[in-house]
Amino acid sequence: MKKYFYSDGKEKFGPFSFEELKNEKITKDTLIWFEGLEDWKSAKDISEFEEIFKLIPPPIIPEKMDLKNTSSQLDYQGGEANVTDNHSGAQNFKRRGMFSNPFSFSGRIRRLEYGISFIIVAFLSSLINVLIEDSYELAWLFLAYIPLYWFFFAQGAKRCHDMGQSGWFQIIPFYPLWMIFRKGEAGISNKHGINPKV
């Protein structure tokens, strides 16, 4: 029985029977060698591999999804999710990194970003308290609490949205601790926006 080897360009794998090779991640550019070949060849240059490529289905890309009750489309390009909102004028939104819009109450964030936000607020609150207590001339620093808590409640609202809930849930006693540990809603999107994991 003919045995096949394939390589990812760094390592070689095998031997495999032809049936076993069908279960491997073979692409048209994968290098293949079997006894009788003088050198490695791309799978696309070996006629018997056409059968494998016929068995590979196209990627599953949802054509339409509901995002904030509008008609939207999700397009994957280079690992990024581009959302086109047809209702608001066909704008493209690329997947955002952490803290890309920290003072906004719309959208969703993951547990990690919320946990870091929690630590930032706790640290800065302590720092402001110490500075005010040490010097009454710095009493005006209490104004720093305004943007600090705006940031905290904005991040909390987005974390609630990630769990499929209203941002008002964060005012429930001890609920912010639960928000650090609970997973967000699965799927590409919910009524609050695109999943930050996508």
Domain count: the total is 3
Shape: elongated
What is the gyration radius calculated from CA atoms?
26 Å
Secondary-structure element sequence? EEHEEHEEEEHHHEE
Uncertain runs with pLDDT below 50, 5 residues or more? Answer: 63-93
Largest sheet: 4 strands, antiparallel
Name the helicity range. 25-40%
Strand content: 15-25%
- Mean pLDDT, nearest integer? 76
DSSP E strands, number: 10
Quote the distance from N terminus to C terminus.
44 Å
Strand order of the largest sheet: 2-1-3-4
Jot down its keywords.
single chain, 198 residues, alpha+beta, four-stranded antiparallel beta sheet, elongated, 10 strands, 3 domains, 5 helices
Task: Please describe what this structure looks like.
- This protein has 198 residues and is α+β, with helices and mostly antiparallel strands.
- The chain folds into three domains: 4-55, no CATH class; 58-95; 103-194, no CATH class.
- It contains five helices and ten strands, in the order ββαββαββββαααββ.
- A four-stranded antiparallel beta sheet has the order 2-1-3-4.
- A hairpin with a 2-residue loop joins β9 and β10.
- α3 (111-134) runs antiparallel to α4 (145-162).
- It is elongated.
- It starts with a strand and ends with a strand.
- The model is unreliable at 63-93 (pLDDT under 50).
